[in-house]
Amino acid sequence: MHLSEEQLVWYRYGEAKGAAAIGEHLAACATCRAAYQSLERVLAAVDQMPAPDPGENYAAAVWQRLEPRLQQCRPAQRDEGAVRSLTLTALFATWRRLALAAAMAVLIVAAFLLGRFWPRPQTVARQPIPEQVRERILLVAVGEHLERSQMILIELANANPGPQLDVSSERQWAADLVGDNRLYRQAAARAGDPAITAVLDDLERVLLEIAHSPSTLSGGELERIQRQIESGDILFKLRVVESKVRRQEEKPNGL
Amino acid sequence: MSRPEIGRQEEFRLLVEQHSRALFGLAWRMTGNQQDAEEVVQETFLRAYRSFDRFDGRAQPGTWLHRIAVNCALDLLRTRRHDAGRVELQAVGSDAGDAVPARDTAPGPDRLLLSAEVQRRLTAALGRLSPTERAAFVLRHYQGCPIEEISRELRMSENAAKNCVFRAVQKLREALQPLL
Predict the structure, then answer these.
(1) Which of A7, A9, A95, A149 should one mutate to test binding to chain B, selecting the residue with the greatest count of B CBs within 10 A?
(2) Which terminal Cβ of chain A has fewer Cβ within 10 Å, N or C?
(3) Does residue A107 share a domain with residue A15?
């Protein structure tokens, strides 16, 4: 029995489970040793990628460009919440709290999606800039939701069915995503977009299945989830929808 | 400008002096080109300045800035994802194609050719990584971050972070193995 590629990678990075046993196996098995040496050559080549030197005066140049902008972005103490809301990072840091305020989020997100994401025939009045910024961030959030959903599905779709698989973190993750997904699905349905509604509906069913699964899956249970993912071709559909959202996101003015 | 404001800016200027180069290196690894790396560095300091009052010194300034830079780079990569396949790694002041320095002082023509091909394939393979794969790989390989830290920084499960790093290594391996 040879070592898997994954074992070799994590051994190389010092994070393999049973590192001592892997080391012993490598010492004894020429095939695995050759595979490991090959991996090391690849990563050594990556190490040789030249790190550029931005120059001795780089910090001074950064400061020169930065200084005039600092006075404009100085936040008032009471504005910290507003500033925080402008960063995607913080948006996700507050995601759980937003989920707790779900009723409010439904109104905000649905209004956003209804009004902006799916075009309506009537002319929309010009929005002030802060509104556009907020909408752009929300578009990014929709894209992120789809990307994160894809990641969890890919993770499970590619897991090896063994006797037991710990999926406790995936369960929690799926449970977090279900609430967000519901908001987007409802908004899509109200906006009269059956294609996107159907994809989000499929996604929600899979997420619920994962969220309600035991924290440790047997091989059979994992295969059932994998079949559910594969049968609806949901990963492909998600990529299509995400691509549509990203295109919206990349348009000038965010929409 | 008020006196406290001047003091605050001076304090911040020291941070810029101390950390600009390291942040540039990180940003370059994550974005793959100088222009984007410089944009990430600027955006990192702007975001940092906005929350400078909340930075109470409990964390190391380098760690704090590093986290902001990772997020800025991720945001940039995501907004430019449609161009991800065309990301070119460029050395400062040189052409991308001949940027890998060979270890030998006088490499032969065969070795130079091989180096250039390795560089070309590596550049292409890095450009094909998804933003999260690339971020996770850079954090693991170049920054030496453990998986637990990567999962925290990228706000994903540890399994997902491991998968990202592993997929990145697999892709790089597929691209380079035939040559090495």
Answers:
(1) A9
(2) N
(3) no
